[in-house]
Write a structure and sequence with these properties.
The chain has about 350 residues and is α/β, with parallel strands linked by helices. It is built from eleven helices and 13 strands.
Length: about 350
Amino acid sequence: MPGKAAQGSHLHVEGVWRRYGRGKDAFDAVRGVSFTVQPGELFALLGTNGAGKTSTVELLEGLAAPREGTIRLFGDLDPVKDRERIRSRTGVMLQEGGFISQLTVAESVQMWADLSTRPRPVDDALELTGLAHRADVMVKNLSGGEKRRLDLATATLTTPEILFLDEPTAGMDAEGRHATWKLIGGLREAGTTILLTTHYLEEAQELADHLAIMHRGRIAASGTVEQIVADHPATLAFGLPEPWTASDLPPLVGQVSTERGTTTVTTDDLQTDAAAVLAWAGGAGLRLARFTARPASLEEAFISIAGGASADEDDDAAVDTTGQAQDAMATAGANTGRTA
């Protein structure tokens, strides 16, 4: 029976581990991951290369069973045991599609439509993903970004209740990326629950209701963008006119540094320090050059979290050693040959 956290959710992951290999060669790509995604929510899974994002998504898709932990879709369905019941309700966009290079775009989508339950018309799928003008072009002649759009066309053929998007805009130019963001946002507004993995932090910041940052198989931070960024310092930056220097500033909450004519205040209380600096400058009759005040960005938070997690590598290695004493893969099909 699912716990209370799983009831009413579309995705519930609790204490999940995934292992590749056996014995001394075993490697845990996913280690104790837990999160919940509510209906109609877009949840972004971020991480460095090899962090375990794709390995986690494959477990959610039912391509493998976890070594430990539980996964439930639609409240109480197991993605492996109940795969037939789940398949028609989900859409999957993998990192790389398995298209036949000699088929045209329209033929490729039609082939997938023939294998799907109640698919939308092929023309509609191509129009939705911006490929209508490329319908008669062979797959081998598509750009990398166009191939990703073809992946998205097949993933959304059946208007899925849950949509897994693994690096959906990789290889796209800026125009294609923003068009895809608009499409994904429209799907979410229509009620689709979406789990997104991406290397583009601005993509997560633009689209995600909640997100988690993975590092070395674990979730290092999770929450809304605002919650994750709030745990990291903000920045004031300005130029001081001569002969004034940073030592003339009033007492501040944050740390002050000066490099190449720019004074920077790194602070956990942006409002207080910004007000103090501006009041001081006003009282002294100074005009501060290039004055900026900004909270931490998701990129800064991501780099800080990944770097801090790296410092715990020795502790993580100890956990791995303990895990290797347990059984190897939960199922013979757990290692699909794809990278984490």
